Amino acid sequence: MAASIFAAVPSAPPVAVFKLTADFREDSDSRKVNLGVGAYRTDEGQPWVLPVVKKVEQMIASDNSLNHEYLPILGLPEFRANASRIALGDDSPAIKEKRARSVQCLGGTGALRIGAEFLRRWYNGNNNTATPVYVSSPTWENHNSVFMDAGFKDIRTYHYWDAAKRGLNLQGLLNDMEQAPEFSIFILHACAHNPTGTDPTPEQWKQIAAVMKRRNLFPFFDSAYQGFASGSLDKDAWAVRYFVSEDFELFCAQSFSKNFGLYNERVGNLTVVGKDADGVQRVLSQMEKIVRTTWSNPPSQGARIVATTLSSPELFDEWKGNVKTMADRVLLMRSELRSRLEALGTPGTWNHITEQIGMFSFTGLNPKQVEYLVKEKHIYLMASGRINMCGLTTKNLDYVAKSIHEAVTKIQ
Q: Which of 206, 249, 282, 331 has its CA 20 to 30 A from that of 53?
């Protein structure tokens, strides 16, 4: 029998966060805690379907005017318009001047990929595979892969996390921007930086924007947590809106997985802000070609849920309340974990836990301490020390805090 034509294919390493979840599921220890996967959980440790989402799903199911015809290639128009509106603001000059348009995508990852594909083909000329793309150090691991797979050859990092201070390395970040070649692409986390949970302040964002404008650097925002981070849609969109007000051309990838709880519906949007309406229309015409050969037409269910919610003042207010419920629980868990660690006298400082924002906290735990927590305490977290604050509950807080204390005390 002839050997398989796939005989030389090696096994790819598993995706770390999903491997962590698989290991957690197989663990039979009653104390086990999953602080890995980036999804919201209630205080009972269960997934939460937002009440407003349940309501809208029922509305859609009983709407006899709907069918399963293809959506336009660029997506559901009312979804695209409303998604861009909450990113840029009701009074956005870019929207009023029709120089902001968008593409419905398969989640935030799909938005990043369509943006990356377009930039590789058309940014600042044709076929710019050598254009440097900068991602923060550290960043969400998919950022590197998306741009590499889109054909970019030069993926670089910019300073972001200061391990000693457990906060933002602003000077290192600004220095890297100063030294970057003109027209480099910078991937920026709009809010709730993943994995550190550390965001620039508005004043720091202004410094970043000033350098980027002077150096002709292109901002590509990844906005995966709007509303989920602080509980305020406007506060979490501040950076994107400021850059628009400073006349930047930019891309903004949006995900509705977290703030709508629509993880498996893959609801994303890519907002394009340009200099003029005609230029943006030409950009979208090329993106339409990319979408056509990627997924051809997007799915409708998740987009309809978001569009219906954002289009109705009453449902919109209810959704904002649901989002604040999630954000407030995360803020409470941050406060409770910090207070317990400080009460235990755990070595080091823990104020960074409450100074960080969003779903994740970069604890500062080293790989050996993480390994101890996983193997000895059955607490599952990323090797980087990143934890999902939603995995904490009033029932496991004491156990997690005591386990962290033990790991830090025993292992340097």
A: 331
Contacts of 138 (CB under 8 A, 6+ apart): 160, 161, 195, 196, 384
Phi first, then psi, for residue 362 (nearest 5°) are -90, 100
The pLDDT tens digits of the residues spanning 33-91 come to: 898 877 889 889 889 999 999 999 999 999 999 999 999 999 999 999 999 999 999 99
The verdict on whether 140 is a catalytic residue reads yes
Strand partners, 227: none
pLDDT (tens digit, 9 = 90+) per residue, 321-345?
999 999 999 999 999 999 999 999 9
Has 258 been annotated as catalytic?
yes
Catalytic residue among 176, 199, 222, 236: 222
- Return the exposure string of 129-147: e unless at least 16 CB atoms fall within 10 Å of the residue's CB, then b: eebbbbbbbbbbbbbbebb
Rounded Cα distance between 147 and 242, Å, is: 25
| 235 catalytic per annotation | no
